[in-house]
Structures are given as C-alpha cells and as structure tokens.
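Re: that chain you flagged

S.,

Sorry for the slow reply, it's been a week of failed gels. I finally had a moment to sit down with the sequence you sent. For the record, here it is as I used it:
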Amino acid sequence: MRIGIDGSRAFIQQRTGIEEYAYQCIKRLRKKLNSCPVILYIRPKSNSKIDFELPNNWKVKVIKFPYFWTQVGLSLEMLFHPVDILFVPAHTLPIIHPKNSVVVIHGLEYEFCPQAYAWKDKFYMRWTIKKSCQWANKIISVSENTKQDLIKLYKIPPKKIEVIYEGVSDNFQFSAPNLQEKSRFKIPNSKFLLFIGRLEKRKNIEGIIEAFEILKEKYNLPHKLVLVGKKGYKYENIKAQILKSKYKKDIIEMGYILDKDKRALLKKASVFLFPSFYEGFGLPILEAQSLGAPVITSNNSSLREITANNFQFLASNSQLNFDDQTFNRKKEIQSSALLINPHNPGEIAKATWKLISDKNLRDDIIKKGYKNVKRFSWEKCADHLFQHLVPTLSFRAWSGISHRK
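Prediction finished late last night. Pasting the structure tokens below so you have them in one place:
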C-alpha cells in the first residue's frame, strides 16, 4: 500500500499561506506515516530544497513537467505509477487520481471578493476547487467558515468535510514577550503600526492607509506604518495611494522578510492591523498574538472564528458597533482581537487609537491573544490529518502503519 503526497508547494524559499501549510503538515506527517511507502512529489526547481530528514520509507519523486504540473504531470504519474491514497494539501486535485484522495480547501475568497482577483484566476480557482471537492472522498477545510461556504455555495455534503485548524510555526509559538531579537531592519521611529501579508486589494491595504491618515490628522499619531509582504493583485493601486499620501514618508514597505525579522517587528509593533475583506483562515493573526502584538481584524469570515475561543458559527455576519464611551465588543463572542468593519477606515482608525491610548484594553487584548493562540498547533493539525487519512482505506490496509506521536 502506497501513499502519495503533493509537495509541490512546500519547499519554495518564500513561503506564504498555502505553501507554509504544506510545509508544516509534511514536516510532521513524516513522523506519523513511518511504515508504509510514501512518495513525495515535488517540482524540478532549484529552490525546492527539503530542509529536514525524511524516514527511510519516504521517497522523493521529481516530476519534470514544465506546464500544468498538477493536471498533466501529476495526473500522468498517477496513471503510470498509481498510489492507494493521494493527499493534496491545497485545492488542486489532479484529473487522474486514486479513489482515495484527500484535498485541503483553504478558502473561497474569490467568491466573496471577486473584484480582488483577475478573471483567469477566479475561473481557475472555481474550476479546480469544484472539481477537487467532487473527486475527493475527503475534504479538509481549515475553518468552520470555509466549510459553511463550501456547503452553501457548492452544495458539498457536510459529512464529506472535516474542519482541521492550521497551526502556528515553532518559530513564533509561545515566544517570551520580552525576548530581544536582532533584525536587519531599522525603523527610525520605534513606534509603528504593522501589517504582514500579501500587498493586494483583498487584504484592504488601501483601507489601512486611509485609517493611518485619519490617525495622523485626528490624533496626531507619531507612529510609522510598516507594510510587510509580497506584491499582489492591484499592487500598483496601493503604490499610487502611498505616493499620493501626505504621510508617505511615514509609510515603510519592506517586501517579503524572513521569520526572524517578522518576529522582531511583531514584538515591537504597537498594533497589528489585519482588516482583510475575507479570509479562509488568517495565520498572520496567530503569529502576531503569539508574540504579544495586539490585533485589529475584520468582523467577518473566519477571522471572528480564529480570534474567539468560545466562537459558535453564525450564519449571518453581525456588525460590531462602536460606542464613544465604552468601545463595546460583542460579549458573547469574547474575541481576543478588536473586530471592525473593514469597509470603514474611520472604524479601523478608532480601534487603533483605542489600543494605543487605553492601556487596560491593550493589556487585555494581549493577554487574550496569548491564551487564544494556544488552541492552535501544527502538531494538532497533523494528528487530525493522520486520523482522517486513515479511514480513507480499510482497517486491514492500515494495520501495518504505526502512529508515533
């Protein structure tokens, strides 16, 4: 009995969301799938370097196919060298695949923010996700919100979908808040607001910049605004807005940075801003909370879910109202972040000022953030993945596989 794992995204040098998920899952599954033959499929790229040791029962297969790697290259591999089960830690199951296939859906953001995607990307993602959900016999969703989206929009049977949360990298989790870490970046003003993520329309960078300008105008905020991440869709609009801003000298772009530099920035940030229009999960929030950065994020999608440890899925979005006297947060949700309407820059600015000016509120949010992030770990994620990979085959077929914690 042979297991195949799509590792095409896991070993690139500049990993973000889905790539990080694939890397962390494979790194931990190698300790659990340690008896039966496992084939790890990767692309023939120079930066596809596996930086951890694989067990003897794992073999690496480089699929040398330049175009349509999944739908043609991996499909041909499945045709000529079939496996008993295929695990794809992303949304693209190959056309030719074994009956026992497990796929991971990270979100349907393109359905809720169509203006934030090129038409060809929307078409490709819609087609691949619909087909993958149709072909797979088990679907892993990274949040309850994404599961509900799959059920409502694509009519996927609920029993076919399992929710398994992502984790937080060992590089971030439970780091001491007073730990000093050197960074190659020097920010002239030590006080700054921070965003980490792809610089694209869906992440609402333009709303962050507008909120920053309000903070400068209304509250005379001395802070800088630091934007960290790769350039994404409609970045040119973001750059134009920065250049047009009267506070452009206070807006710092850093591009993609290493984890050690992210840690250093998160430990020093006054506020971590993540007012995205829609997210399947929202991993940067957990990285921020693990390092003591108070978080402001959107009252929508999975963002409410991952910031509230007593969250129960709500069928319809509720709006968080602000009160000038009390700055009211929904008590029934008990969020570890301040939840805002991402379409209202004034609300983002007001929440930011509250965190900066109200020490008790700030300390409370930081404390709740530390508590919240303990719910998430890659080890838990891999354990649950293993448990749901096992039932896809008969008990007899799996009887030879040992499961080491």
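What I noticed first: Residues 174-179, 313-332, 394-405 have pLDDT under 50 and may be disordered.

Talk soon,
D.
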